[in-house]
Amino acid sequence: ELEDSTLPSPFPTVAKNFQLLLNEGTIILQPLSFGQTSFTFIAQASLGVPEEKKVSTPSKISSSFSGLRRSTTKKSFIQRATSFGFSSGPDLAEIGFGVIKAEELFNKIASMLYDRFKREEVIDKRMKEDFIANILNAPALTPPEEDLIMKSLDLAKELVLAKRVVGTVREPVEKFFHRSDEGAGWAKSVAKIHCPAINFFAELWLLDAFERKVKHKSQAIYDVIKNIDGTRAMQYSRSISLPGGFQDRIFQAWMTWAIMNESGRRTFVIAFAPLAEYGGTQHPVAGTEKMMLASSSGVHIVKEITDNICEWTRAQRVDLNIAALPASMLDFLAKQQLAQSNVLQEKHMRNGKEVDREGRDALAAIMIEKRGTELMEDQVVVFDRCLSLLGDGEDQGWKSIKSPSPDVEMQVQYFPPVMKDERCIATGKAVGVVDCSAEEVAAWAVDYCSSERMHEHHAEGHPARLELKDKRRENESTFATIKSLHTLTFLSREFAFRQIFKAEEGKVFIATESDDDEVEYGSSLSKVRGFVRAFWQIEELPHGGHKIPQCRVTFVQQLDVRGIIPTWVMDASIPRLLGTVQAAIDKFRQDQRIDDAVRKELSAFIEERWGEEVYSQ
Length: 617
Known about the structure:
Number of helices: 14
Low-confidence stretches: 1-17, 50-100
Distance between the termini: 103 Å
Helix content: 25-40%
Radius of gyration: 33 Å
Number of strands: 24
Shape: globular
Mean pLDDT: 81
C-alpha cells in the first residue's frame, strides 16, 4: 500500500483514494549516455479502492514502463514512460485523478515521476557539448553521403525562381517561395544568427533533443534514428496533420552533414533527402502505414561570419503528394515552415551594437589579410571609374563650400558624364580625420546593413534596405535600398549598387557604383531608380605621441535621384549627402583619450627637459 510519504512533493496525494498491491515485480536500472539511466518497472499488481469509492471489481494488471533516470548526488531524473502492456479490461477506478481506466494508472505514476525529476535543459546541453567535442571523431562521409551534400548545395543555388515573400522585406529573416506546376513548394530563408556557427549547427542537427520533442509533441509520429548502418547519417520521421480533411502525411528523411573550410572560416552543411533515396537499412516506424507518404529535400548552410555570429541559409523542397493541392494550403504550410526561421533568429538575438562591432572587427581582419590582392577584371573597370572622381589628385578645379561641421572640409566640382545616360551633376568631396585604423573605418563604411543602420533606416520610414547575398564576393557586396522622400509630390528613390574594397599597407580604398540588375522586393513599389558613384580613400596617419590610430578619410560622391527633380536641387544637397564622413568621425571619436595622451606626453617632455626649474613668465 502506497503511503503519502513515499511520493516526494509536489506529487498530488493519491494514497487516500486507492491501493496498489504488488504481487511480484522487477525494477531494472541501466546506465545511459549524458548521465541518464534507463528505469524499467515490470510488475503484476492488484488495483483496489475503498468500498465507498468502488465502482467495479479490482483488476489484475500486468504492466511495465521504462524511462531514463539521472542520478548525480541525491537527485534523480526520470523520463516519461514509453511502453505499457495490460491483461485487464477497461475497468474503472475513482482515484485522486478522477474516474480513470485502470490501465492508465501506471502512466499517471510515471508521468508524475518524470515531471518531478526532469532536467531536460541540462540533458540537451550535455548532448550538444558531447556532439561538438566529438565532431571530428564522426565516421567519414560515405560516397552516397558526399553525393547528397553536393546535390543539396546545388539545390540552394538553383532557387532562382523563388520570389521574396510579400510583406517580409523589412524582416530580419529574408524569405523566398516558389510553387511549381506539379504542386511542390520551394522555400528559402536567410538569417544572421547571433551565436557561434558550430553551436547553431549542433542545435539544428540534434533533432532528438528534448527541446525539439516538446516542440513537436502534438504530432503523432516524431522519430530519430542516428548513425544508421554505422554512418554519421540519421533517419528522421515526422508526421503532420493537414486541414480540410486530408489524410495525415508522413515525412521520412535521410540526413547527413559535412564541414567545409573557406578562407579560414568554416561552413557547416546539413543535407536531407527522401529516405527512399538511401540505399542502406530503412528502419520501420510504427504508425507510418496509416499515413500517406510525402517527401522533402533540402539543405541547411551555416556559415561562420565571426566567432560568435553566423549566417544561416535554409533551402527546402516539399511535396505533399496531393494531385490537386489548393494553392492557398501550400502557401499556408510554406509560411508556417518559414516562420520557424524567425523563431530561431529571435532566440539567439543579442545586442545589435555588440554584434555590429564583432562584424566590423572580423571584416577589418579580412581587409588586413587581403592586402595587395588584385581586383578581378570587371571590378577594375568599376574601380577606375570611381577613382576618377578624385580628379588629378590636386585641389585644382575644386570649389570650397560651407561645411556644417568644423571637423569636415567640403568641396564641389563638376565632371563631364562618364556614361551616355548620366546627367551632369556636381561631385562633392569631404575630408576629415577619424580616430581609428583605416581598416576599422572601411569596415564600418561597407557594413551597409548593420543592425544600427537597419534600425535607423526603418525608424525613418524607408521601405527597404537589403543585401543581395547571391552576388557577394570576398571583397565585394551588392546592396539595394528604397528611400522615401516623405512627400506626395515625388516617388521614393531606389538605389542598387556594388561596393568593392581594395586594401594596401596603411590604406583602404572603396569603390561604389550603381548596379543595373532588377531587385526583388516581394511586392510592387512605386519608385524611381537613382544613380550613385562614390569613392573612399582612407589613409592611416602617423600615431604621434598619443599612440592612438588615426586616419585621413577622403570621400567623393556623385548622386542623382533622377526623375523630374532638377540637378540644382541635388547640388544644393551636397553638404547633407557628404555627412557620412562626419558620421564616421562621431562613431570612432576619441578626443578625450587623445587629449589625455598628449598632455601626458607634454608633461613628461617638460619634466625631462627642464626638471624643477621655475620661470617667472
